[in-house]
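Sat 14:20. Reprocessing the chain from the morning session after the first attempt stalled halfway. Input below, unchanged.
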Amino acid sequence: MFLINLILAVLWAYLLFNALYFFVFAVAGILTPSLTPLNSAPSKKFAVYIACYKGDEVIKYTGPKALEQNYPKELFDVYVIADSLESKTIAELQQHQLHVIEVKFNKSTKAKSLKEAVSRTQGNYDYAIILDIDNVMENDFLQKLNDHLQDNKLILQAHRVALNTDSKFAILDAISEEVNNHIFRYGHRALGLSAAFIGSGKAIEFNFYKEFIHEIEAIGGFDKEMELKLLSQSKTIHYANDALVYDEKVQEAERFEKQRKRWLSAQFHYFRIHIIPAISALFTKGNIDYLDKAIQMILAPRVIQLGLSTILAAIALVFDIYPSRNAWLCMWGVTCFAILISVPIKYWNKQTLKAIASLPKAFWLMLANLFKLKGANKSFIHTDHSASAHQKPKP
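Finished this time. Tokens:
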């Protein structure tokens, strides 16, 4: 009985820590007003990189779409990094005003593609922008970045939102993205901490980026290695909540499971590497940003946090398990409150209610992934994209 109670106490403490962490930053995001910079005359020059591995039908749409910016044409160039694209796709892209950089590797990774692209980029730019193959910038995206970057910020993460909500899993994925935006980006900046990186939709000062990108060796978890290295160097990641990048959301369970397996594997991998250096940096340099990011690597994904806390709170209602019924219910209540206030109003609708029916499946898929992580971070796990998701774009 002692062993069971010990396990329950540790599990409760871990889930409560997660709940309180989410709660603090969720409330901070609610109480802090959104600040939009004043409109500025276009002045920053951007190199937009679209990392592209396969996905010919998708890049045929997103490549040319990236050129449709309400921003002076002479102040931005779009580079498609073509890894494993068909020759006819490359020829079609070259008919547009796109710079196509063909790359080929024995083992492809996003880091390798970006390194090769920047080494072959000619011209002077103020900022590099990193996009994925499925991303679509809103038409005023570059103008909004220009406004935010008038004070010459080094690193700026844009607001990534759902391109499609055409299935229950896509809706859940879209809501998950927005919850993360609120807690890990907007809420963090509200309290003076760095925003979390996402895999795409970020602007980095070009000369710094040219040097820094060569430090990245990630196979999986490209964005996590980048932000942990940046924060270990005491760099601040800013957040542009009003600059939107549309991102394809996974439409079925198989792709959801595959994508989350990659993310979970990367989290555990980078936690092991960075937690000790991050603790040391806190005491030697006062670098709280770095430690906060390392801690994020061991936080439970929101669907696991919500699922476990709900199951255990329900059990506690019936059996009053250790530490107490009220302890479990309070932890569950804090979890639910933090997540609920982080969900944008636009998702409070009938479609979301229907999608909630898929939450148990999403929970079990994520839970099962915890036992399938061995070696996942040592190989490139590619997430397939659907051309159908781009047929009716949001922007």
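The chain has a mean pLDDT of 92.
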